[in-house]
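Title: Comparing notes on inverse folding

I've been comparing how different people in this forum approach sequence design from structure. To keep things fair, I'm posting one structure and asking everyone to reply with a full sequence. Here's the target:
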């Protein structure tokens, strides 16, 4: 990916569910190294937009360009491959596999990506050290705090060196201390690992460490 090209471009994105039009013409550009927040009240369509950007849902109208390619030309397998290798997804409720340890949850996307075992171990340990959670490697998600689960979810999203990280309301289920820690970590990731980051938030007034800040209201980004 060339640094002078947008990572992501949305043009005139519309999304309806039945007769309800949720997104009414979204335009957005994410450049290399951006840290973007999209704020909005609950129910305005932030998660729908997150899923469209992450190629988990298809808009009714409009175009999505990822890394210079039109996403509408991709089949389901190509979309899955793009998510695996270039798009890190952090879901609102973590989506960690309860039967796997922290280490195994982090390692899984690398295994799916065909990375050999020795390299998987090195990368997982590197991230555990970066996030200062090495001592939790053998624990299961059910034995972690909300803040710890959030950090593991972020590690899993970063493990295949994505170009862009999407996080849907990453602080919504955390207390103030863990919310601040998560935002600090995302800022550190953006600066040190050169990942473009886009997060959604229901907090309309909190000061966020982002380079660009948008509001989703009435189906449009403002």
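Reply #1:
Here's my take.
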């Amino acid at each position: 990916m060339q640094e002078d090209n947008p990572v992501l471009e949305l043009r005139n994105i519309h999304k309806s569910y039945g007769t309800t039009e949720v997104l009414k013409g979204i335009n957005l550009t994410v450049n290399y190294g951006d840290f973007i927040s999209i704020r909005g009240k609950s129910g305005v369509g932030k998660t729908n937009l997150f899923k469209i950007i992450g190629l988990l849902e298809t808009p009714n109208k409009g175009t999505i360009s990822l890394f210079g390619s039109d996403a509408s030309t991709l089949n389901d397998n190509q979309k899955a491959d793009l998510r695996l290798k270039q798009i890190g997804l952090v879901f609102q409720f973590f989506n960690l596999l309860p039967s796997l340890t922290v280490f195994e949850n982090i390692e899984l996307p690398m295994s799916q990506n065909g990375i050999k075992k020795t390299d998987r171990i090195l990368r997982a340990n590197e991230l555990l050290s970066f996030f200062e959670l090495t001592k939790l490697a053998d624990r299961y998600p059910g034995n972690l705090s909300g803040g710890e689960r959030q950090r593991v979810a972020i590690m899993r999203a970063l493990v295949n060196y994505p170009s862009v990280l999407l996080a849907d309301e990453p602080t919504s289920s955390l207390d103030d201390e863990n919310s601040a820690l998560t935002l600090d970590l995302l800022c550190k990731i953006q600066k040190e690992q050169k990942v473009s980051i886009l997060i959604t938030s229901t907090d309309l007034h909190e000061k966020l460490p982002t380079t660009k800040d948008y509001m989703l209201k009435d189906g449009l980004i403002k």
